[in-house]
Amino acid sequence: MALPLDPHLEERHRELAGRVREFGERHLRGAAGDEEDPSGRAAEVVAQLGEAGLLSWAVPPPFGALDARSALVAREGLAYYSLLAEAVFSAQALAAHPLAAAGSDVQRGRWLPALADGTAAGALAVTEPEAGSDLAAVRTLAERDGALFRLTGVKTWVTAARDARVYVTLARSGDGEGARGVSLFLVDGGAPGLDVRPLETMAALPVQDLRLDAAPAVLLGEEGQGVRLVQRALESLRPGAAGAACGLAARALEATVRHALTRRQYGRPLAGFQATKMALADMHAELEAARRLALHAAWLADSGRDEAPRESAAARLVAAETAGRVVDRAVQLHGALGLVRGSTVERLYREARALRLREGTSEGLRLELAGAILKESR
């Protein structure tokens, strides 16, 4: 997978892309265990990413080098090889971002260097059985206990929860209605009152339920600011999520081109048929359009432009939906071979479906994007 020549990227981003590609070829291409035991593989991948120095791009300065373009480059490259590795990187970044933004000097000094070098895995525990896109609907309760809080509730779809050393967790801590009563907390992975239970998904994602039973926690930032901190983290990393979708689509396109050149039908390669050529052209054009939109959104975010949240939402929406279409065409062009369990395009088909739900649903992004457009027009 070649990184496109693009004026939004600097030399450091190209160097990072090369490091990710080298890591992927060494550790991820053909890696065993992603499908059979993604949760079991997650800790190993965290350690490998940390040893390779790649997790420093998941942590904001001064403890790391995270910016929107670096996250996009890293996540696109990792998703090309392994959605599990991309999800682990994303989990580190989603935990590190609010920690860097609102943590005390002690909290940042304890956790951010460890997240950056891979000696600690982090997890953002936000979603609940009755609270997904609506973060203000969380029911996990935080009760004050001296200088600490005790958290009781259930979090679900927590990436890399099994081996996390720190959970960045949303809970209701006050009497304020909606988001005003929701705060963000740090829960030590070794604390009592934690129970992690695996979830099996159609894609090889290391996700679990996290049950908290009076688990000790410390406040991150100020009370009542939890929803805002999580939303900022998600917005900041949306170009990276778009990049992940582009990486997955690029792998599907590459596999399909190779298949079209080698598969013969009616005495000639599949690539010799006009319908195949048109499908490949559409796949390439849509992927490049999504990639350019994602790169532009990441540049806007790094430049601090006001339109960055809007364009990041657009990039994430377009990229995830594009990945779905590209992979669907890939399966179609592979014919019955595309339905074989464990084949590259069959795996990518399941993974592409998951991308339309991770870090915000496509429907939620459409509503958010429409709200921004209408607000600007008034």
If you had to describe this structure to a student in words, what would you say it looks like?
The structure is a single chain. With 378 residues, the chain is α+β, with helices and mostly antiparallel strands. It has 3 domains: 11-117, Orthogonal Bundle (Butyryl-Coa Dehydrogenase, subunit A, domain 1); 123-225, Butyryl-CoA Dehydrogenase, subunit A, domain 2 (Beta Barrel); 228-377, Butyryl-CoA Dehydrogenase, subunit A, domain 3 (Up-down Bundle). It contains 10 helices and 9 strands. The chain has helices at residues 11-28, 38-51, 68-81, 83-102, 105-117, 226-262, 274-302, 308-334, 344-355, 362-377; strands at 122-125, 141-145, 148-159, 166-172, 182-188, 194-198, 207-220, 264-265, 268-269. The strands form 2 sheets. Strands 1, 2, 3, 4, 5, 6 and 7 form a 7-stranded mixed beta sheet that branches. A two-stranded antiparallel sheet has the order 8-9. A hairpin with a 2-residue loop joins strand 8 and strand 9. Helix 6 (226-262) packs antiparallel against helix 7 (274-302), helix 6 (226-262) packs parallel to helix 8 and helix 8 packs antiparallel against helix 10 (362-377). The longest helix has 37 residues, at 226-262. The model has no long low-confidence stretch (mean pLDDT 94).
- Percent strand equals 15-25%
Shape estimate: globular
CATH class of the largest domain: Mainly Alpha
User: How much helical structure, as a percent, in the residues?
Assistant: 40-55%
State the CATH topology of the largest domain: Butyryl-CoA Dehydrogenase, subunit A, domain 3
- Main sheet: strands, sense, barrel: 7 strands, mixed
**CATH architecture classification name of the largest domain:** Up-down Bundle
Find the structural class using helix and strand composition.
alpha+beta
Radius of gyration: 21 Å
Oligomer: single chain
Q: How many separate structural domains?
A: 3
Q: Count the E strands.
A: 9
The average pLDDT value, as a whole number, equals 94
The poorly predicted ranges are none
Through-space gap between termini: 43 Å
